[in-house]
Structures are given as C-alpha cells and as structure tokens.
Amino acid sequence: MIGTLLAGPVRVVNLGLASFARDLAAHGTAVAQVDWSPPAGGKHELLLALAVLEKDAVEKANQAALQKILAAEPMLADVRRAGELIPELDGARLMLHAGPPIEWGRMCGPLKGAVCGAIVFEGWAPDLAAAEKLAARGGVQFAPNHHFGAVGPMTGITTRSMPLLVVENRAFGNRAMCALNEGLGKVMRFGGNDAEVLARLAWLRDDFGPLLGAALRPAPVPLNPLIARGLAMGDEMHQRNVACSSLLMRILAPAMARVGSPSLPRALEFMGGNDQFFLNIAMAMGKSILDPARGIAASTIVTAMSRNGTDFGIRVAGMGDAWFTAPVEMPQGLYFPGYSAADANPDIGDSAILEAVGLGAFAMAAAPAVAGFVGAGGFAEALGYTRAMSEIAAGRNPKWGIPALEFAGTSAGIDVRRVVETGIAPAINTGIAHRLPGVGQVGAGIARAPLACFEQALTALAQHAR
Amino acid sequence: MIGTLLAGPVRVVNLGLASFARDLAAHGTAVAQVDWSPPAGGKHELLLALAVLEKDAVEKANQAALQKILAAEPMLADVRRAGELIPELDGARLMLHAGPPIEWGRMCGPLKGAVCGAIVFEGWAPDLAAAEKLAARGGVQFAPNHHFGAVGPMTGITTRSMPLLVVENRAFGNRAMCALNEGLGKVMRFGGNDAEVLARLAWLRDDFGPLLGAALRPAPVPLNPLIARGLAMGDEMHQRNVACSSLLMRILAPAMARVGSPSLPRALEFMGGNDQFFLNIAMAMGKSILDPARGIAASTIVTAMSRNGTDFGIRVAGMGDAWFTAPVEMPQGLYFPGYSAADANPDIGDSAILEAVGLGAFAMAAAPAVAGFVGAGGFAEALGYTRAMSEIAAGRNPKWGIPALEFAGTSAGIDVRRVVETGIAPAINTGIAHRLPGVGQVGAGIARAPLACFEQALTALAQHAR
C-alpha cells in the first residue's frame, strides 16, 4: 500500500465512504481509497451507550460471566421422555419451537410443516390438514424451547412424547435438553412431516431413546474432553460433527451392548450412519454452559442466539431472560442439486447456541472442510472467520484448542459491545431448509446475526447502567 | 540474508563445510556461512549411478509404478486364522517377524521377548525359559512377514493360531495381512510376553477375531475413503489413528451386533478403547497398495521399508524382492515417565510401510498433534516434515488430501534417486520399545531410514540399467 502511494500520482487519499472516491475519480482526480468505517457505524446513540458501558463494573461482570462459562463441566447424562423432564408438556397441548416467541400466523413454512407433523405425531389431529386447522384456531400453545431449558435444531419442535437428551453442567447443577438428531433426508427439523418422518420419530420414542438412556445413566459422558478431541479432528460442532459422533460411538456402543436390546443392531446402525448425531448433544451442552451466566447484572455477554425462521433473537447476561429480536437474515451458501436461493427459508434454529459458546463459525479454523461445505472457501478463509470472530469475543477457552492456531483456545463469550463497536456480526454455520412445509434440507451456508439485535441489547444495557 | 551481506564487513562467503568458516573466523576473518551440500554427498560412485538412472526408461517405469499405487482399491475384507491364510505356518514351527531376515543370535531384546512369548502361546514350550532354549538351539524357523504377504507392527510376530486382518486390493487381486492390534500397555508387539499378554492373545484368537471376521465377510470396508476422511480428521495413520479407528467403529459395531455373540460387549469395549486399533489395518493396506509395484523393471520407487530392531531394510520396485539393509537407527523422541533414551531399543517394525505409502511422517501436516506426541514441535514443524518428505516423493495421491495444505494430496512413492541426491532420509513416526525383553513401550519419536540402504539400492539399480 505504501509502495503504491509513493509510486503513483496520488493526489487524494479517501477514508471510508467509497462514493466520494468514485465521484473524484469520475472527475479525473487520482484517488487512493482506504477502507474504514467509524465505530458503531457512527451512530450517536450507540456511541453514547458504548461510553456508558466502558466501565469497571461491566468488566467485572463480564469476567464473572466468563469464569462461569469456562468453569462448566457438561456431561451427557440421560435420555428421557420430554413430558417427564418438562412436566408442563404433559399438562396441556404445549409445543416448543426454536427461536424467540412467535405465534402461528407469523411462522415460516418449514416451522408450520413441523408443527403439523408433530400434532399428528402426538395424536392431537388425525392428519396434516386437520393439524393445520387445529393450530390456526389456537388449539395448540406455542413457546420457545429456551423458556423450558431446552434447545432444538432448525424448526426445533419438542413435544411431550419425544425422547430428550439431557446434558448436566456438574459445576453448577443446571441441565439443558435437546431432542435426538433424526439423521439426514426428510426429517422434522427441516420441516418434514410425512409418514416416514413420523415412523422414525416413533422408533426413536419407543426403542432408540430408552436404550440410549439406559446406557447413559450408569456412565455419563464428560463433554469437555470430547469437544477438545473433536476440534483436533476437524469438527466445529455445528455443520461438522463427524469426529464427536464417531468418538461418542466408541463410548456408547459397548454401553448399549451391555444393556442389550433386540433393537441393538438397528440402533448402532442409526447412530453409526449419522455424521451429525452429536449436533443435538453439542447444542444442549452449549445451553448448559451459557445458562449459569444468565442474569449476571451489567454483563454484556451473549447467553443465547436463536432463530425461529422469521425473527432472530438474542439474550444477554445482564438483561436476564429478555429477548432482543430483529428480522432474520438469509444464509449465503451452497445448494443441493436441483435447489437454489429461491427455495431457501431464512435462517432458523436454536443451533446458533453453538456460535454463542464459541464453536460453529467461530471455530471454523478447526474445520476447513466446513468452509468448503458452506461455500466459504478453504483453509485460509476458515482461519479468516475464526480470526474475525475472535474480535467480538470476551475471552478464550483454554480447554478447547485449535491445532492450526498452535492450539490457541476457541472464543468464549460474545461481547455485545464489541459487536456494535466493530460492526462485525456473528457468523453462523447453518443448514438451509426449504421455505415450504414438508420438503426438508436444500443446502448449507453461513448466516449473520442481525446487528439490530445487538444494538437494541446495548441500548437496554446502557439504560440499566445509567 | 542479502541484507546481512550488504550491511556487514563480510570478506569471505563460505559454502558448505562449516569447519572452513570456523577456521577463518578463528583467525579474525569475517565470514558468511551458507549452508549447502553437494548432491549425493559428493560421492563419485553415487553421482555416476544417478546419471545412469536419469533416463526415460526409468521415468516410464516409475510412472507405471506410480499408476499402480494410485489405482489401488484396498478393502478390509476378512479376519482369519494365520495358518489358514499362510499354509506354511501350519506345516512347520515357523514364526514370522518384522523387518528383513534375521537369525536368533542377532535379534534385539524386545524381538527375543516376543518370540519367546509366542512360542509359549503356540504351546511349543511350557514356559519362557524353555522357549528361549528352543529358539537358541534352532527349534523354530524365522522369516520376515514380508516374505509371506504380511506385515506386523514393532516386533511383528505372526504365528499359526493368531487371527490376521486381510486387506484385498480389488484393483489387482492381491491381498496383504496383519495381526490384530492388541491395544496399549504390555503387548507382544513391544516385546511383552507375560500371562496377561498371552491371555489377551487367546481371547483375540477365540472370540474377537472370529466375530470380526464374520462381521466383515458380508460387507468389506473400502479403505481409500476412510483414509481420506482420517487425514481430514488429524490422523497420519502411524502414531495417530484416532479418527480412522472411530470411523471404523461406526461401520463395524452394527455389523458385529448383527452377527451376535456373548462377547459383543467386551469386543466393542476392546475396539472402542483403542485409539490405535486401525494401525494394523492401515499397515496391511499399505502393503496391499505397494505390492503390485514390486518387480517393475527399472523403477526406482521404494516398495517396502522395514526394521527388525537390528537392521533396517528396503525393497525397490526395480529390484524385485531383494533387501537393501543397514544398521537401524535410534528414534529421537519423548519418553514415558520413568524412562529415557538409555532404555530405548533401536527402531523396529514393519510399520514403516506407512511412510513408504505416503502416510506417517510424510503426512504429518495432517496430524499436528502427532508432532507434539513424538517431540517434533507443533503445527509449523508438522508442515515442515511433510514439505521435506515431498522432495523425495515420486508423486502425489489426489485421493488423500491434507486440509492444511488446501487438500493437496499426500506423497505417493519414495524415489530412491531423490533420497540419495538430496540426502533427505525418510522420516518415520514410531513407537519406542524397551531394549529388554518383556517390558513394552517406553516412548514415541521420529526415526530416520539409513541413507546407506538407499545408496546400495541405487548402485544395484544402476548396475542393472547399464
């Protein structure tokens, strides 16, 4: 750059808005354009809020939140019926979904598709058409998974009879739950709802779930070391869980064989055939790690990021259980043969809890193969994502090292202040669902969390802090 | 470097032998030392041999060998009793071992320990003392695994009743075999021979081997894609097989459950508890890939590297089944607590077949964790090993990409000419055995193949080519 400045006939150096440079160039003036943007996009209100929040009390609160995140000891401990774990599910026609709260009328296509499938699965309506009518006339209550200690990928539907994975955070005694991963193809999390989808859910409920629960209860699986090994083996635990799924199989297969079941061969085949089996475990782990930081007054650290396919919502430690929402964005990515961006539903799922805990796109440098899968390039680009995301992180997790960064720890905690100040929106590695009910996955890509969520949260935190 | 030359009071620039520079410096002369060594160490006879072998016929032969290596389709197909696969083992008191041929008197400690253990295991003597006497008086015949289509890690003992893994190369119809990996701790491959070692071997023979064979025969496992996935997950398949062992478990556990056996829980636990389970499969695969290149006239590509703990031996495509041997070197590495280099046995095992096929130290860039485990540094050093080894390789294998090199293929084929010309000795990632019989593994490190083996092979190839 300096070389160019010395050598060329430069008369004007323009910082920031490129349009000035273009105007000058159009009038024949030599211009050197330097990329620059003002902090917080130069917005006066946000700069004031940032100034209010640059104080010791916030730093201390964030350190307290960070220490809780880093002290977590998540264990995969059990699989049980959802109604047993969340009694409210047995008390009413209650259905949990991904993302912040949303009513039926504003739900996107795949979420409506999954809702209707789950209504039929629970026997609340005889078929999909009747299910849609039931939902439309208010015959089912809806609430976010996050309101009941749970998470779910994509549509994230949780109903009473589904088996849920239980991750216990032994350091703080809290737990988080997530439904079992259904595999690829037509599945409810991508809006699938036909007979094949419901038959698989019934098998998970009647055979696989109880077998896995019985295998886990005598010997819970510590997850910190599993994640550390997975990062050294190319997983980022969002779009790639090959290593953790495989390592877990080595632990669970003997335990399941000791329990014994006529379903054992099918159960091992189901688990062994699914590279993403671990995803749902990683998600429950993410929530179990971040939940203890909820409600730490003055902390600007993000405790959840989540999408329902219509709205993107975040929660911040210092603001308890409040949601800060904005319209969800479209992922940029690669599509399966026969599909294109025109088929895509906007970003959806509770799985952004993984980025909130420093995995997924934040740990892309550990998983260069994912960069290719989501259309983001190769090894160099994967390093770039991880470096960029570290600029908005509150700290590093020394337990989870990335080999290509000489085992430097993953990011830990997203600081709302850094997001607003830098304008770097958290990147999220995501699957892409078809926008219509009943179709399923059509691709994978990278979505961005809307800056508006973080700007709202920052403003609210500053009001609290004044 | 140029900067230093311009800035300093340099009067003499010395290339090569540092002693000249030291002498001059001692007399007060300013000297700039430039590292350089002449091709083939400047040895006249080797330079002549290299000149003889720099011709089209050799290039063509090497391309033919390389095409065979790259066309391989190795499948893990079976596990059977050694005597069934190698009838000679049932016909006499024959015992196969790692490395080139060696008689009892010249065997190292761990090899003698394993031989005695195997004699007891086969019931040829009642105890270790009697076994030693039997071996010393010539009561057992010894031959290399390589002479019977087999390989074995470390001591590499193969006897009639042991179960052998069978890898078939479907592209050429050949097969290669290897005993099952016994796990870590006291094991025969590191010279262990006590009751615990023999009891485990008996269980492998009576329970695990037959179960695994029955699971494999209906559904052989293609190994090319497994290696490709493993390289993307941090394995180099010599000192690190975590990914491939785990991925294989996902394939084999359901198949073993379908066969059914009262041993199933223990079998899954044994397999699931061993990060190196895949090592022996990778070795048989390596031999199955390289064997079709044996006997291609004029080719200077290495078809085997192997050590018996006393001698290092190589075989070269253009020289058929001849061994070129030299005294084996000492690995440089890290020792387990309580052990040091004084306890170490020199380099041993058939496992250097992995480096010959482009894995192990040649693929270290895929496995930065191994660089730490063998005491060779971190990610940067791992990249350095892979880059250095590519200088002596005949080509690249596009099926096996390394993520950190933007998925460039692993090395394929070691060219004896390049080794002699550059003086770059192949590096080998290796376990280190105690030098005494019956102790076991004491560390892990990197050994170098002796240049003398390659110089002998080069001279022989040149004599043939004249």
Explain the overall architecture.
The structure is a homodimer of 466-residue chains. Chain A is built from 18 helices and 18 strands. In chain A, 58% of the residues are buried. A 5-stranded mixed beta sheet of chain A has the order 6-8-7-3-9. In chain A, strands 12-11-10-14 form a 4-stranded antiparallel beta sheet. A 3-stranded antiparallel beta sheet of chain A has the order 13-18-17, with no helix packed on it. Chain A is 39% helix and 21% strand. Chain A folds into 3 domains: 2-36, no CATH class; 42-69 and 292-465, v583 fold (Alpha-Beta Complex); 75-286, Alpha-Beta Complex (Enterococcus faecalis V583 fold). The first copy, chain A, has 466 residues and is of the alpha+beta class. In chain A, helix 7 (109-121) crosses helix 9 and helix 9 packs across helix 11. In chain A, strand 11 (311-316) and strand 12 (324-327) form a beta hairpin. The first copy, chain A, has helices spanning 2-7, 18-26, 44-53, 56-70, 82-85, 88-91, 109-121, 128-136, 195-216, 224-231, 242-259, 264-272, 279-290, 353-356, 368-373, 379-390, 416-422, 451-465, and strands spanning 12-15, 31-34, 74-81, 94-97, 141-144, 150-151, 163-169, 174-179, 221-222, 302-308, 311-316, 324-327, 332-335, 348-349, 393-402, 408-414, 427-433, 441-448. The model of chain A is unreliable at 1-9 (pLDDT under 50). At the A-B interface, helix 11 and helix 12 of A face helix 11 and helix 12 of B.
Tally the beta strands of chain A: 18
Class by alpha and beta content of chain A? alpha+beta
Determine the mean pLDDT of chain A: 93
Helix content of chain A: 25-40%
What radius of gyration of chain A results from the CA coordinates? Answer: 23 Å
Overall 3D form of chain A:
globular
Strand order of the largest sheet of chain A: 6-8-7-3-9
Specify the oligomeric state.
Answer: homodimer
Report the uncertain regions of chain A: 1-9
CATH architecture of the largest domain in chain A: Alpha-Beta Complex
Integer count of domains of chain A: 3
Beta strand % of chain A: 15-25%
Q: First CA to last CA of chain A: what distance?
A: 44 Å
CATH level-four homologous superfamily name of the largest domain in chain A: Enterococcus faecalis V583 domain
Output the CATH class name of the largest domain in chain A: Alpha Beta
Enter the CATH topology name of the largest domain in chain A.
Enterococcus faecalis V583 fold
The largest β sheet of chain A comes out as: 5 strands, mixed
Please tally the helical runs of chain A, counting DSSP H or I stretches of 4 or more residues.
18
Largest interface: A-B, 34 and 34 residues
